[in-house]
Amino acid sequence: METATQSTISKVLPVTGMSCAACAVSVESMLAAQEGVQEAGVNFASSSVKVVFDPAKIDTAAMQQVIRSIGYDLIIDEENATEKQEAIQASSYKQLQKKTLAAALLTIPVAVIGMIFMDMPYGNYIMWALTTPVLFVFGRSFFINAWKQAKMGKANMDTLVALSTGIAYVFSVFNTLNPHYWHSRGLHAHVYFEASAVVIVFIMIGKLLEQRAKSNTSAAIKKLIGMQPKTVWIIQNGEPVEVPAAQVQPGDIILVRSGEKIPVDGIVEEGESYVDESMISGEPVAVHKTAGAQVFTGTINQKGSFRFKAQKVGSETMLANIIKMVQEAQGSKAPVQKLVDKIAGIFVPIVIVIAIAAFAVWVIAGGENAVTHGMLALVTVLVIACPCALGLATPTAIMVGVGKGAEHGILIRDAESLELGHKVNAIVLDKTGTITAGKPVVTDMIWKSEAKPMQPELENILLSAEQQSEHPLATAVVQYLKDRNATPVTLSSFESITGKGILAQHGNITYKAGSYKMAKEDNMNIPAELRSAADQWSNEAKTVIVFAQDNEVLAILAIADEVKAGSKKAVEALKQMGIDVYMFTGDNQQTAAAVAAQVGIQNFKAEALPADKANFVKSLQEQGKVVAMVGDGINDSQALAQADISIAMGKGSDIAIDTAGMSLISSDLQQIPKALALSRSTVRAIRQNLFWAFIYNLIGIPLAAGILYPVNGFLLNPMIAGAAMALSSVSVIGNSLRLKWQKF
């Protein structure tokens, strides 16, 4: 995506190779330091960077070289950028899966020997042999990333993992080869191979969970791009010629046949049809298109064919603008600065300083065996401070929270949504398919008193006529009559009158079916009882269909997109939680007002385009609100991407589901309050986990450094430190598992 202002250009480029928030900071700072770059903002969640630069001073190739020099990469081939990034992410995820599995298989026997059979013959050598590939083959990325950070004078979680596991490994190798060094000083030669291996595996599992959440970030964009047909039929010399869609120019006349997608935006020149525009409006009823009507890229022609003149092509189409806005909304989000990474930025250097200081104090003032005790203190501090509990604090709670959500029909695609849900104070609901069922159905049918004796036979005739109709609402009538056990009969003739309705002849009698408006314009005889009901249904924003014999109306039917059973209760529950509720819809004002009144929503907007929804979400965010967007259609994807929390209805479009952080399997709005309550419990568990992880370090690190030795001669054994480290991890996991038994 590219925009330009005078001499500067703004581009969003994919970045590969980032493994933590500190990596994102490195990429951002390196780019920002280059001459010609005015602004650089890295989005770690979407693995992309937005760069504003002067092309006269620097180009994307030069920026790519700068990023490659620090171990990362930029994808500057804009045409295939999404596909390339997707392939790299998929490959990286598969590699991490294999490495984690292999490391775990080697670590299990190491842990068993180290904790249970530590005195078995050659046990240390077996553990050494199994631990070495865990650290330096499957876990080598921790050491590589730590070295990259060290070269830039920085430290992160990888630094502490590499230092603690590396020193514990070297210390264990020394003790395995030279046990007499300790024995001669009256100490046991402990080894900590199991601590090194277990820490590596646990942290790898955490990274695997993170990559899994990020692996599908471009899926929605890919599907949106795939909605544009690859080839089109252009009229040349009066004949249709198939050409690639990329070759279409404004002014070309294009033929669209039944069932085909419309390739570009334009104006209908000849012919007529019904077009499914639900991807834009969200409304399930197809729109009747005649000469002069606008058509849009990606919408689907249903019945009939027509020719239209291309107006907007390529990046100017409405679909292209939707794609751009989704990309922009995803890219404008702040980087996912995990609480653990933020804390580690301060915690890691402090731990390293404490470990070195402890060693120095022992060497200077430790007396007999000062170096020995100093080395033990150094290793013990690094082992006990190893960020296993910190690394598990978030992912374990997220794992349990995601599982608990699935039990309640709430599918959570990313941890960010689950973590942010408890802050939501404004929620925007789409109407069609979200508050309502998204499918037109016959809600009422009334017959003229004199026609009731013939009702079964007349229903059979109406069924036969509607089965031949091309009108989108005919399907609802057919389904309703079939549910009433009506059976089709043979009609003498059938005719569809555009904009009016249908004419059918059975025997010598002519029957008509069409809109209530048509009946009034044709001055049909409408009995008072039917007219009263029809006027009432119209006021309720229902579509009224009349069925007449010659000029006498026999029956009327009401068709509407019904409000879901749980929608009103869901709105009430959200209000009780202190959340402002808004409704946006592409439908008309009358229908929107009727639906809003039914469910108790005061704030609503009708006839809204996709950009209107996204802009409204953005305006709420600018007011300081944390916004959740709930929708089910492609038309909602921009707003879903813009919102802080995005929730898709389970029966919605693939685009909406892929863009959203949460999806509701049942499409029941009452699941939304449950999802927000689940978020609150999960965040509470994460905070508790981090609290206990820090309390453990706050107590354990001073003990490991030997603070009590001058008082009572107590010096924490590294083996106990390793056990304490494991215990802290168990406590974090146990606390997270409590979520399983909570009720929502």
Descriptive terms for the model:
single chain, 744 residues, alpha+beta, Alpha-Beta Plaits, Calcium-transporting ATPase, cytoplasmic transduction domain A, 6 domains, seven-stranded mixed beta sheet, six-stranded antiparallel beta sheet, 28 helices, 51% helix, elongated, disordered N terminus
Verbal overview:
The chain is of the alpha+beta class and 744 residues long. The chain is built from 28 helices and 27 strands. It has six domains: 2-76, 2-Layer Sandwich (Alpha-Beta Plaits), CATH 3.30.70.100; 79-215, no CATH class; 229-316, Calcium-transporting ATPase, cytoplasmic transduction domain A (Distorted Sandwich); 335-409 and 676-744, no CATH class; 410-435 and 564-665, HAD superfamily/HAD-like (Rossmann fold); 441-560, Calcium-transporting ATPase, cytoplasmic domain N (3-Layer(aba) Sandwich), CATH 3.40.1110. β21 (543-549) and β22 (552-560) form a beta hairpin. The longest helix has 35 residues, at 81-115.
Portion of residues within helices: 40-55%
Return Rg in Å.
Answer: 34 Å
Number of beta-strand segments = 27
Q: Within the largest sheet, what's the order of strands?
A: 15-27-26-25-16-23-24
Give the uncertain stretches in residue-range form. 1-5, 328-337
What is the averaged pLDDT score? 81
Largest sheet: 7 strands, mixed
Indicate how many domains the architecture comprises. 6
- Our count of helices gives 28
Task: Tell me the strand percentage band.
Answer: 15-25%
Question: What structural category arises from helix and sheet content?
Answer: alpha+beta
Principal-axis shape: elongated
Q: What's the N-to-C terminus distance?
A: 42 Å
